[in-house]
UniProtKB/TrEMBL annotation:
This is DUF1349 domain-containing protein. Transmembrane segments: none annotated. Coiled coil: none annotated. InterPro entries: ConA-like_dom_sf, DUF1349. It comes from Streptosporangium amethystogenes subsp. fukuiense. It comes from the Bacteria. Pfam families: DUF1349.
Amino acid sequence: MNRPVVLPAFPAPLRWLNQPVGWNVDGDDALAIEAGPNTDLFTDPGGPDRFANAPALVGRLDGDFTLSARIRVDLLSTYDAGVLVLHGDERTWAKFCLEMSPQGRPTIVSVVTRGVSDDCNSFTAEGDDLRLRISRIGSAFAFHVSTGTGFWHLTRYFALDGDPEVGFLAQSPTGQGCTVRFEDIRYSAKRLSDLRNGE
């Protein structure tokens, strides 16, 4: 039975889209998800391939919000990733990733899917204090990343139809599995005052 998951830092019940190999809630604000091999969420814009078997834990948040987490991920294989995700339905979703590039570098990647996916690599990212954040501002969404300086860099601003759920995902498209730890998870119902500098 797919019982709701309670994570104290997240102000709503959470549910699994796909079951993970393993998972754990640690204290009020940390979550670990283990994805199995060949798990992904991607619809190829240039071909018939569609993948939707990555484990994701999502819940519904009303109104404007920000949701952020420090991402720690065992990047062992190409496209292994820790992800913050928006999920409307099987054809409408977006993900914000700390992902292993084909060059073997941790990379900030975003994907927005409206029937088919796009794929945008922003920059390589180093260090042990990488934080991803999803914000809703009215009918729009924003992805920001902080690399330890305290400044939130805008990487994507977009609209997504419907009222998507938001949450956490782990993936290992080409590998044998991937464990992601989401730490210092923070939710706020406060609307961003400045989209460009992330405040």
